[in-house]
Amino acid sequence: MGKYADFYRRSIADRDGFWAEQAQLIDWQTPPQTVCDCSRPPFVKWFSGGRTNLCHNAVDRHAARRPNDRALIYVSTETNEERIYSFAELKAEAMRMAAIMRSLGVQKGDRVLIYMPMIAEATFAILACARIGAIHSVVFGGFASGSLATRIDDAKPKLIVSSDAGMRGGKSVPYKHLLDEAIDLAQAKPEKVLMIDRGLDKTFNRVAGRDVDYATLRAEHLNADVPCEWVESSEPSYILYTSGTTGKPKGVQRDTGGYAVALAASMKHIYCGFAGETYFATSDIGWVVGHSYIIYGPLIAGMATLMYEGTPLRPDAGIWWSLVEKYKVNVMFSAPTAIRVLKKQDAAFLHKYDLSSLKHLFLAGEPLDQPTHEWIMGELKLPVIDNYWQTETGWPMLSTVRGVEDTKIKFGTPSFPVFGYDLRIFREDGSECGPNEKGIVGVVPPLPPGCLSTVWGDDERYVKTYFSLFKEPLVYSSFDWGIKDDEGYHFILGRTDDVINVAGHRLGTREIEEAVQAHAAIAEVAVVGVSDQLKGQEPMAFAVVKDAAKIATPELRAALEAEVKKTVDGILGAIARPKHVHFVTGLPKTRSGKMLRRSIQALAEGRDPGDLTTIDDPSTLEQIRAVLRG
Fold it and tell me: What φ, ψ does residue 195 adopt, rounded to 5°?
C-alpha cells in the first residue's frame, strides 16, 4: 500500500497543502484566505473567506459547458414514471423552485424543512435552498408527527415543502395528515407549506392561507432567473437530524465550502466517478447518503444521478440491475441489508442484464458481513467496496481509495482510513491500541472538510456528545468498536452501546452475529443482550434461514438451534452462546436498512419498543413478539 499510504500521510502531515489542492476541484467566487482554522478546538473552519455555492457547483457550471448532458434520471416503479433532466433543465427547475421560495418570503439563512418522498421535486427543493443560501432540513417522508414536530421546533423553518403522499410496495402512504398534526403540535409554526400534489391522496386537507400549490406557483415562475447566492465557506448548508434520538433532536450542521470540497475529492479518489458517467445510489434523500451521493456528490462531479422511488424487489428482484443496463450506470452505492435481501432471491435476476458499464459497487450503512460480501462480489465479478462512515461525517471515514491505489479487497472490512481522517483505535483509558486489539474508533481533530461543524443551535452539546470520550487526548468518538489488523485493514465490530456484559465478559453483538452467520443455514441474524438476574445479560439471537424447510417442524427447529449454538461455541466460546436462537422470516429494519436492535431488545425484555416511525415492515416486529410468547 505504498502509493495510498503516501497520499494519506500527506493529508495528515501537510493538511493545508493537501486540501488547498483538493479545493481546486470546485468553483469559488472568492478564493479562500485560509485552508484550515482550528484555533478553537474541537471546532474547525475550512476554507475561511472563500465564497462558493453548492447549486452552482452541482448544476450551473455543468449547464454552462454541457447543457444537454443528463443530470437527473428519475425512475419510480411505484407510479411507473421515468424522466430524464439535462443540466440545463435541472438548472431551470431549481431556479423555478428558488423563485417560488423567494415569493414565499424565504431569504438567505432561513430554514426550509423538506418532508417529501423520492420524487424529482425533492431534488429541485434541495438545490433551490442551496441556490438562495437557505438552509434545508430534510426529514424522512412518512416520519411520525410527534418526531416531525420536535424537528420543526428545533429548526424553526419559515417554509415546509411536502407532498400529498409517498408510495411503498404499490401502496399510497399519505403524508399530509402527519404534517398537519406535526404543525399543530409544534410551537414554531411555519408561515407557509408548499404542497406538491401527486394525485395520490385525493382527500388531503388544504389549510387556507398557509398551504400553497406548487404546480400553480411553478406556472407563474416558468421563466425565472434566480442567480446563485454566494455564501462564505463556513456558513451552514443544511441540518440533518440523526435517527434514533430521543427528547431534543440532534441536528447535524454541515458547512458549505468544506462539504463541497470533500464530496468532490471523494468522487474523484474513492468512487472514481467522472463527468458524463452515471451514478446510482439506492438510498433516500432523508438519509445522509441521499444528501451526499444522490444529490450533491455525483452532480458536483458532473455525473448523471439516478433517483429511484421503489423497492429492490418490485416488479421483481432484477429491477436495480435492469436500471444499471438501461442507463449504463458506472458507479453504484447500496446497503448491506439490500444485498442480503437480494441474496435470498434467484441469482438469475442479476445475471439477466448487461452490467458491463458498472465499474464497482459500494456498500455502507452498517457493517458488511463476510458471507454477503463474498456472495455479491462472486456474482458480480466486480470490486465490491465496503465503506464506513456516519451521518456526522457526511462522507467515508474508512474505504479502499481506488482512485489513488487499487489495494487488495479483504472480505468484511472497509479497509483503510480515508485521507484527511487522523483515525485511530483507542483503549478506554485514551491510549492507542496495538494491532488486532479491540478498541473505540476515534478521530484526532481537526475533523476533515465535510464533517459536521456543530450541533444546530447547541455548541455545548456538540463538544459533550462527540469529544468527551477522554479528558486527554481530545478525540472525536465514533461510538463504534473496531480492530486494525497487521496489514492496516480496519474491522468495525458494532456500536459501543451494543455491548453485552455476560458475567463480566464484554461481548459485541456484531461478533456474535458473525459467528451465528457462519452456520451455512443462516441468511441473516440480529443479536441483542437481554437482562438476566444471574449473569447480568445474555445474548439472544433472531435468525432468518435460507431454506424454510430446515425449520418446518419443532424438531427441525430445535436441531438447527442446537447446531447454531455449537457453531458459536466453536468460534467465540460457550460464553458467547445465545440463550435462545429464535427463527423468523424477516427482521425489523428502518426503510434505510438499519436494524432496529433496540426495539428487538425492548420486546425481549418485555418493554415498549419505542418510536417505530421508520420501520419498513411492521409484521417483522409482530413475528418477534410471537416467537417470544412461544
Answer: -105, 125
Q: State the DSSP code for 294.
A: I
pLDDT value, residue 245: 37
In our burial notation (b when 16+ CB lie closer than 10 A, e otherwise), range 95-123 reads: bbbbbbbbebebeeebbbbbbbbbbbbbb
d(CA 397, CA 450): 11
Task: Read off φ and ψ for residue 507, nearest 5 degrees.
Answer: -125, 130
SS3 232: strand
Residues 283 and 296: beta-carbon distance below 8 Å: no
Read off the pTM.
0.86
Instruction: For Cα atoms 241, 300, 141, give the angle at the middle one, nearest 5 degrees.
Output: 30
- Per-residue pLDDT of 141-182, as tens digits, reads 877 788 899 999 999 999 999 999 999 889 999 999 999 999
Q: What are the distances in angstroms from CA 216 to CA 98, 127, 140, 175, 610?
A: 15, 20, 25, 20, 40
End-to-end Cα, the chain, rounded Å: 53
- Of 544, 479, 532, 477, nearest in space to 508 by CA: 479
Task: Report the candidate in 154, 120, 157, 119 with the shortest Cα–Cα distance to residue 135.
Answer: 157
Q: CA 281, CA 116: separation in Å to the nearest integer? A: 18
Buried b (16+ CB within 10 A) or exposed e, 204-223: beeeeeebbebeebbeebee
Confidence of residue 246 (pLDDT cuts 50, 70, 90): very low
